[in-house]
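Exercise 7. Given the encoded structure of a 640-residue chain, write a plausible sequence.
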């Protein structure tokens, strides 16, 4: 065997230090297709639809290009991605196109304004759109529909009804008209009786006054079938040409379980005497704090049922609550308890279970909903946020636990579905305090050190060597809590990954605001609820109003307290967000929307640790928390 020539050693060293790692190639993007975009939109995959419409716009010619751009913004809004919607709408040039494009753009701008809390600004956009000529009935219908949403946000329910009455002239088909009338009817029957009387006395439009009178008749004859029928007969004689659909009258005389109308009795099912009692008490305290803040004398009466430690008994307790007059059930809390309801109980009234299960609630009942704080949902949102930030190649570091495996799987599946590539995946042992080995494996530093040892063996001498982290990672997702995150992030920095963006979930933040300890988390971007991230404006006012003496403020239990608050506040709005595609309720836990299975999906706020303190990333949304809480005031008023 020939001896190695010393002059060749630098060449060998360079080659070996560079390594023989095969570069991972991102999967080829699917061909651009309108069918793919429309299919994603129909199935509720709004972010994927927005991505596909954006791709289509890049290769299309005017005016098809602007059409795809507007459709992309529409789907960004439906997906709750306000930042992307706002960023793209201003770039769409419709100046040389017909008036329909201008109207569509103004409608989208109005929807963005409404989401941001700029209600008057949004109404001005809609007024401008309505003044355009030669608009189709579909666009005029949409203008009236969005205007109704704006009026509701401004606490003008009769103004909303007025717009829905106006909308009816632009929609065709018996079913579409009936659905529009159901929407305006939900608004009317949610109004306090005294307010209905006031509005009836000042109404001048006969159609509007007829609707208000019908709502009053319903309220004043509730539970009295004979007198209600007589009053309805008199109403029909007095309003022979009124457009009220027969569907409304059928609903009045033969009421079925539903999520619209006035709620008088609520059952709250929680395991107060179980191993989860602390969590249950936090949810109860938040729920009852919102009830205490509701000054309406006709607000729903709440009865709390302790479901105890045995999930098998939950169906019987659920049935008891309904037998005792509950018109709406909130709970139970916990996966096993929720699954017991799904498998055994007969769903006779609208039910908001406080957990996500593996069983599709939509298969059990159209009146069954799920609301919780599942960590997998947050992992998926990390994937969405990073993708929208322009990241495409990712690595993940997660604990070797069932929780960590679920988080990694949820994130990876969603990330790849969006079109991202997982270039490295590494678990770690939570019992360790030194994570250098898993981090070095994640960053390929172990391989670099092994190559160095091989070179030294070949060369027969020690080499000067600086390890280098792999260069093919756009960001790292770490599934961890604050305790372990404070150890992981400094070690990532030490191993030359200080400039690699790091994303995480709300679990990285304790809620205590400990800048001294959390300085080790600097640079990490994470999603959390407004209740945890917004410390001023209306959220601060609400904290002072409902949570002054609560012993667990600014702790992990605060999130469960907020879950209880939103569980109360969203009840009058479930009907609306259940029937309007992309509709969203702004709560303290997040922006909430319903998927096709009846699960409430959260859209979190995003923050970055800076000197140990979380700072909102999207500063233009900083006031959003102020808007979010206004909806609670209106919820309380509309539920009267």
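Solution.
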């Amino acid at each position: 065997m020939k001896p190695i020539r010393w002059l060749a050693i630098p060449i060998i060293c360079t080659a070996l230090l560079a390594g023989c790692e095969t570069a991972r190639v991102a999967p080829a993007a699917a061909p651009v297709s309108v069918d793919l975009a429309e299919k994603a939109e129909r199935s509720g995959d709004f972010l994927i639809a927005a991505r596909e419409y954006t791709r289509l716009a890049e290769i299309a010619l005017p005016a098809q290009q602007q059409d795809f751009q507007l459709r992309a913004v529409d789907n960004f809004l439906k997906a709750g991605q306000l930042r992307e919607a706002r960023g793209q709408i201003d770039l769409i040039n419709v100046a040389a196109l017909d008036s329909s494009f201008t109207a569509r753009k103004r409608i989208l701008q109005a929807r963005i304004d409404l989401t941001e809390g700029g209600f008057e600004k949004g109404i001005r956009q809609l007024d401008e759109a309505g003044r355009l000529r030669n608009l189709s009935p579909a666009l005029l219908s949409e203008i009236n529909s969005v205007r109704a949403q704006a009026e509701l946000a401004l606490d003008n329910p009769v103004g909303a009804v007025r717009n829905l009455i106006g909308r009816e002239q632009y929609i065709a088909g018996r079913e579409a008209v009936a659905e529009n009338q159901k929407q305006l009817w939900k608004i009317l029957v949610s109004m306090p009786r005294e307010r209905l009387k006031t509005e009836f006395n000042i109404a001048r439009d006969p159609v509007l006054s007829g609707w208000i009178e019908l709502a009053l008749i319903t309220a004043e004859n509730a539970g009295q079938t004979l007198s209600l029928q007589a009053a309805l007969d008199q109403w029909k004689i007095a309003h022979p040409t009124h457009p009220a659909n027969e569907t409304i009258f059928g609903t009045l005389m033969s009421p079925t379980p539903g999520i619209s109308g006035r709620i008088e009795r609520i059952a709250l099912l929680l395991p107060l005497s179980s191993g989860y009692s602390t969590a249950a008490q936090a949810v109860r305290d938040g729920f009852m704090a919102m009830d205490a803040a509701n000054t309406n004398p006709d607000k729903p009466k709440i009865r709390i049922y302790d479901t105890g430690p045995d999930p098998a008994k939950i169906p019987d307790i659920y049935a008891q609550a309904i037998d005792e007059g509950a018109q709406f059930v909130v709970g139970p809390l916990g996966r096993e308890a929720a699954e017991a309801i799904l498998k055994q109980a007969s769903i006779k009234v609208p039910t908001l279970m406080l957990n996500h299960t593996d069983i599709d609630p939509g298969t059990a009942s159209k009146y069954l909903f799920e609301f919780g704080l599942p960590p997998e949902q947050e992992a998926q949102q990390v994937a969405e946020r990073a993708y929208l930030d322009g990241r495409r190649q990712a690595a993940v570091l997660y604990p070797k636990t069932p929780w960590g495996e679920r988080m990694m799987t949820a994130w990876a599946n969603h990330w790849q579905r969006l079109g991202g590539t997982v270039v490295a995946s590494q678990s770690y042992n939570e019992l360790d305090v030194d994570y250098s080995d898993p981090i070095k494996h994640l960053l390929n530093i172990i391989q670099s050190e092994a190559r160095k040892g091989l070179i030294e063996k070949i060369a027969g001498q020690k080499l000067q060597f600086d390890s280098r982290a792999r260069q093919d990672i756009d960001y790292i997702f770490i599934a961890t809590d604050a305790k372990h995150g404070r150890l992981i992030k400094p070690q990532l920095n030490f191993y030359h990954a200080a400039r690699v963006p790091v994303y995480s979930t709300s679990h990285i933040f304790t809620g205590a605001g400990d800048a001294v300890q959390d300085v080790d988390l600097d640079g990490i971007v994470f999603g959390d609820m407004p209740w945890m991230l917004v410390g001023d404006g209306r959220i601060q006012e609400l904290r002072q109003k409902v949570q002054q003496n609560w012993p667990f403020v600014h702790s992990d239990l605060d999130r469960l307290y907020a879950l209880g608050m939103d569980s109360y506040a969203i009840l009058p709005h479930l009907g609306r967000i259940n029937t309007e595609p992309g509709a969203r309720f702004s709560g303290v836990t997040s922006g909430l929307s319903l998927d096709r299975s009846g699960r409430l999906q959260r859209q979190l706020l995003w923050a970055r640790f800076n000197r140990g303190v979380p700072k909102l990333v999207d500063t233009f949304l900083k006031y959003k928390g102020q808007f979010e809480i206004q909806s609670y005031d209106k919820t309380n008023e509309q539920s009267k």
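Remark. Residues 1-26, 622-640 have pLDDT under 50 and may be disordered. Students should compare their own answers with the one above.
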